[in-house]
From TrEMBL:
It is a peripheral membrane protein. Signal peptide: none annotated. This is ATP synthase subunit delta. GO terms for cellular component: plasma membrane; proton-transporting ATP synthase complex. The lineage of its organism: Bacteria, Pseudomonadati, Pseudomonadota, Alphaproteobacteria, Hyphomicrobiales. NCBIfam families: ATP_synt_delta, PRK05758.2-2, PRK05758.3-2. It holds the Pfam family OSCP. Belongs to the ATPase delta chain family. It is found in: Cell membrane; Membrane. Keywords: ATP synthesis, Cell membrane, CF(1), Hydrogen ion transport, Ion transport, Membrane, Transport.
Length: 186
């Protein structure tokens, strides 16, 4: 995996790597990945949870108690639940999104897949996701695990990131390019 100069991503990669090794030993990589996806969905849907993990105002005890309660309520137990508690106790909750992303990449590589981040203007149907995976497989040369996020500001189209490559077919980018071209003409 490419090393980043960001201290957050370095922390995230180390924690994700350790979690992956533990999950591999316990033969529970799929369960841990599902639990992390569940937590990521909760994080995406809750401004309060996002504030909890990003704010330095909360003590590590408060964060640990809150994360334990959230994990228990969501049914995130075992290795993932313990992992979240350790991260909270070590005051590393700010790096959780990066840890989840890094874990997904490591797990995909282990399965012989490559990970792709897809941002679309609207939610993709299962058929569209299947078609997109097939198209990306032909480009990447191996199976592709996709993570889809929705960004209505794109207006239409997709932004696909595979490793260091980015394919941007969004309407927003095309309109901005057209706007620049028109400024150069006039």
């Amino acid at each position: 995996m490419a090393q980043s100069s960001s201290p957050i991503s370095g922390v995230a990669e180390r924690y994700a790597g350790s979690l992956f090794e533990l999950a591999l030993q316990a033969n529970s990589v799929a369960q841990v990945e599902a639990d992390l996806n569940s937590f990521a969905a909760m994080l995406e849907g809750s401004a309060d949870l996002t504030r909890l993990i990003n704010s330095p105002v909360f003590s590590s005890e408060d964060q640990a108690k809150a994360i334990a309660a959230i994990a228990d309520k969501a049914g995130i137990t075992g290795l993932t639940g313990n992992f979240l508690r350790v991260v909270a106790q070590n005051r590393r909750l700010f790096a959780i999104p990066g840890m989840i992303k890094a874990f997904r990449q490591i797990a995909a590589e282990h399965r012989g897949e490559t990970a792709a981040e897809v941002t679309s203007a609207h939610a993709l149907t299962d058929a569209q996701q299947t078609e997109l995976k097939a198209a990306l497989k032909s480009v990447a040369g191996k199976d592709v695990a996709i993570t889809v996020t929705v960004d209505p500001s794109l207006l239409g189209g997709l932004v696909v990131k595979i490793g260091s490559r980015q394919i941007d077919t969004s309407l927003k980018t095309k309109l901005n390019s057209l706007k620049l071209a028109l400024k150069e003409v006039g």
